Amino acid sequence: MSRRIAQSRSCGKSALMSETLKPKRIKPPHRNRRLAAIAGFGTLVVGGVALIASALGDNTQFFYNPSDVVAEGFVPGSETFRMGGKVVEGSVVRKAGLLTEFTVADFEREMPAPITVLHNGVLPDLFREGQGVVVTGQVAADGIFMASEVLAKHDENYQPKINYQDEK
After folding, report:
1. pTM recorded for the entire structure
2. What are the φ and ψ backbone dihedral angles of 38, each rounded to 5 degrees?
3. Which of 1-10, 36-45, 60-69, 130-139 has the lowest mean pLDDT?
4. What is the DSSP secondary structure assignment for residue 124, as one 8-state letter?
5. Dihedral sign, CA of 37, 42, 45, 50?
6. Residue 159 belongs to a domain
7. What single string gives the DSSP state of each residue in 16-73?
8. Does the residue 42 lie in any domain?
9. What pLDDT, on the 0 to 100 scale, is given for residue 117?
10. CA-to-CA distance for 156 and 40, rounded, in angstroms?
């Protein structure tokens, strides 16, 4: 009997020893922190990209030619957009206060009729008839372009007067 007890004790010890000697799975000490930091950083990057895309989407202004704006079925990409063309000779009419009405034609394509632009504000110094212009605004229901901003274009040959020190 003592042999049987010894065997059972020895079997129990070996079973107990094999359980205690089994190597446990070793986890890196900061694994969970590292994964949390990576997930947090990824969330911040995705959130930042979403905010930038949202801000750019709100401030996007599309640019169109006047012939595109007067074409049938024209649908602008946003409510406010830019239109660039040439101020028609003899079309500038200054009305009450700072209100100015003028027509804009396309540089490149023929148009059935130029588009009328209304602007209430100060016009740039380079604004003239026959000169290039970029207007920002919206098309009203009656087809008149209501400009909130007018930018005058100038040719690339503009040369400011330079006063050299030795010429004084």
Report:
1. 0.58
2. -65, -45
3. 1-10
4. P
5. negative
6. no
7. HHHHHHSPPPPPPTTHHHHHHHHHHHHHHHHHHHHHHHHHHHHH---EE-HHHHHSTT
8. yes
9. 92
10. 51
Range of the domain at 86: 63-152
* 37 and 75, same domain (yes or no): no
> 54 or 13: whose pLDDT is higher?
54
pLDDT tens sequence across 18-55: 556 666 776 666 677 888 889 999 999 999 999 888 87
Examine the domain organization and report whether 31 and 68 are in the same domain. no
101-119: pLDDT as tens digits: 999 988 778 877 788 999 9
Q: How many residues does the chain have?
A: 168
- Alpha-carbon span 19 to 123, nearest angstrom: 89
122, 150 Cβ separation under 8 angstroms: no
In which residue are the tokens 């004790």 written?
9
